[in-house]
Structure formats: C-alpha cells, structure tokens
Specification:
By secondary structure, this protein is mainly β. The chain is about 10% helix and about 50% strand. The chain contains 5 helices and 19 strands. The chain has an 18-stranded antiparallel beta barrel. Strand 4 and strand 5 form a beta hairpin. The longest helix has 20 residues.
Length: about 400
C-alpha cells in the first residue's frame, strides 16, 4: 500500500507541475503546453534454460511534455509508466529495469503489485532551458549525451549503450550545462552532475567537465574532458578524456574513444574504450550495412567495473537493414564476442500499419560453445548468461 501511494502521489505532483509550468493561468498553459509520447504493448516469449517456456506481457508509456515560458525559457518533463506480468514482471522486479522498453532503473520500492500485474512509475526528465542569443543554460533532471557512437557509444559514459536492448530509454542525470555558440558550427559546453550516490552530502563522486563540438559539411568532431571527484575513500578522483569523430564520404565513418584514468588504480590500457565503425548503403539506399568494432578495457566506460554492461574486451556488431517500402523494413544483425566465442544473432521487422502505429517483431538467439559441445564453456552472449535459447518480442507502438 505504501509503494502504491508513492506512485500515485508522484504522478499527481508531476501532472500538476506540467500543467502549471506553461504560465500563471490555465489559458496561458493551454497555449504553451505541448504533449507527445509513445505507447508500447509488448508480448514476449522465451525458450528458457530453466523452465522450458516463459511468457511476458508489458504495457509501457513514455509521456513527454514541453511548455514555453515567454521568449527565453522552456520547461521539459517526461514520465514513464509500466505495467507487466509474467517474465516481464520478474525481469523488472529482479533486475530493476524493463529490458524490453524503458530501462527504468527503478528500485523495488517504486513498484506496486497485486493480482494480475506489476506496475511502476518513473520521473524521467524534469528540467528547464534558458535561451540567449549565443548561449543556452540547461538545469535539472536531463540528458548529458556525448559522442557520435550509435552501437557501443564509449563516450556516452553516463548512459552506456547495449545493442542487446536497442529500445532502452537513455538515462538522465541531475545536473546543469552552459552552452556557448561562438560560431554557427561550433559549440562549447561546460557541465556538472550530482554524484552517482544521491545521498553523498559532501559531493563525493560529483562530476564536472568540458566538451567541444565542431561541425563541417561532411564531418564532425567532439572532444571531451570530465573529472569525477574522489569517492569511496579514494584520494585522487577520476579523469575521463575522449574524442569522437564522424565523416560522411563514400562510407559513413565513425571513431569514438574514451579513456578513463584512475591514479590510485594505476589505470593503463584497461581504461580505454574504443569503437571503430562504418556504414554504407546499396541499391539507392534500399539496403544499409553497418559494422562497428569495440575494444572495452576492464576499467573503461563500457565495462561492468566502469559502469557499463560488458565483461569481455573485443566485440563486433554487423548488421543489414533492408527497406521494403516507405512503411516497412527488415533487419538482420550479429553481435559477436571474440574473447569467449559467443554470439547473438538478431532478427527484426517493422511495419507501419497506419500513421503513428507500428508493429515491431524482434528475435534473438544466444549462442556459445557450450550450446554445441556441452562442455561448460559458457559465453557472455550465450544462452546460459541470458537464461534463454530464444527470445521473441511482438510490439505494437503508438506515437502521439
């Protein structure tokens, strides 16, 4: 009952904030307030390594609101809602996030459940932006994204990507950023964020940094530096230095690098996370091919130790997407882990049934050496780690 009361209370407070942010009166709020979002209805099925067959049901909504305040300020907010049953409910409760959609990151106290379903609510974004002629200031619960990586994203250390969960919502941080635009193609950003431990009253683990983005007609570069203040009894703190480049020539080329240095841990090459990628389109853009390699050091941004989700070092993502027509496409991809010889093929198909409504079918088949030889040589991308031999999701997505 207490958890349910908390969810309802937060929801009511969020809606009140959204309504009142547009201005001092109801008519002004109605003029300035815009609402958008998505609703995903998902059915999942797995051939499990424990039970022979498991199912999951999930209803997920992301509601985004924006209110302009006069000419110089904008309010942004977003909330996530989830209701789940079966395997989807167990995954959310035990792992703390919805693997299928939201990556909610909720604590168990944020859930309410009883007969038939588990439910949860999360405040995803809550921030403001002040617009100047050459500067912008953002503050609140917001995204601080870095780098141009699409598959692995080493530079995006505040929200490491995982291609096994391509629909996961990017996480926000409580922080602020001051952007300066000395030229149309140049952006300088100074930023800061609260510690990962929200109860750190002394600021241990707080984040400050600088980034620069320069854009040309066919290429872009971003440089990044961030310093994390000492935490967990450390003395020196942590430094992160990165560079991300993309170019559109005959091929689309990408390099994304972030080096994490911790003096007390004597970080060497293990602090490096580096991705190299390329994409190319065939048949007048009908077929898109993508390949991206990742080196993930043991103390890097993409490793489990560094806040990511990967336990090995060398990975390769290869994928093909074919555009059947303006409303449908199909894709085939392979995620490879070379250190333990494990793989996950991914199959997908999307079809826009009508404007704003899309049917999405996805399948994953974890593979490793134990699956074929039964020799106990389990792999990170194999069925033993994921707990299933085959994963299938059918999702109906509504955009509004």
């Amino acid at each position: 009952m207490c958890a349910g009361f908390t969810v309802k209370s937060l929801f009511i407070l969020a809606l009140c904030a959204f309504v009142t942010a547009g201005g001092s009166g109801a008519s002004l709020a109605a003029q300035n307030l815009s609402v958008s979002g998505i609703l995903n209805s998902t059915v999942s099925m797995k051939a499990g390594t424990g039970p022979d067959f498991v199912y999951g049901l999930e209803e997920y909504a992301n509601l985004r609101m924006q209110a302009r305040i006069k000419e110089r300020a904008v309010f942004y907010g977003a909330v996530n809602f989830i209701a789940a049953a079966g395997e989807a409910a167990n995954g959310a409760a035990l792992l703390g996030f919805s693997q299928g959609n939201a990556a909610l990151g909720l604590s168990p106290s944020a859930f309410t459940y009883g007969e038939n379903y588990l439910a949860a609510f999360e405040l995803e974004r809550l921030y403001f932006r002040l617009n100047g002629e050459y500067t912008d200031f953002d503050g609140g619960l917001m995204r601080l994204p870095f780098g141009y990586g699409q598959i692995w994203g080493p530079s995006d250390f505040l929200n490491p990507k995982n291609p096994l969960y391509p629909d996961a919502r990017p996480r926000a941080v409580l922080g602020a950023g001051l952007s300066w635009y000395p030229a149309d193609s140049l952006k300088l950003l100074g930023f800061g964020a609260a510690p990962r431990n929200p109860f750190a009253e002394g600021g241990e683990g707080g984040l400050v940094g600088l980034s620069m983005d320069q854009h040309w007609d066919r290429s872009s570069v971003q440089a990044l530096y961030a310093f994390e203040t000492p935490r967990d009894g450390s003395k020196w703190g942590m430094h992160r230095m990165g560079i991300s480049l993309k170019a559109d020539v005959e091929l689309g080329l990408l390099t994304d690098l972030l080096y994490t240095y911790n003096r007390e841990a004597n970080t060497g090459v293990n602090g490096l996370s580096l991705s190299l990628g390329a994409d190319y389109s065939f048949f007048d853009g009908k077929l898109l091919a993508v390949a991206e390699y990742l080196y993930s050091g043991e103390a890097s941004s993409t490793s489990i130790r560094g806040g990511g989700s990967l336990s090995n070092r060398n990975y390769l993502y290869t994928g093909l997407t074919y555009l059947i027509n303006d409303y449908a496409n199909t894709g085939l991809a392979l995620i490879s882990g070379f250190d333990d010889v494990s793989f996950t093929p991914l199959v997908s198909m999307e079809n826009e049934l009508f404007q704003g409504c899309t049917l999405i079918l996805t399948g994953q088949i974890p593979l490793d050496r134990d699956l074929f030889a039964d020799n106990g040589e389990y792999g990170e991308l194999g069925p033993h780690t994921g707990g299933s031999y085959f994963n299938f999701n059918a999702k109906l997505r509504l955009r509004f």
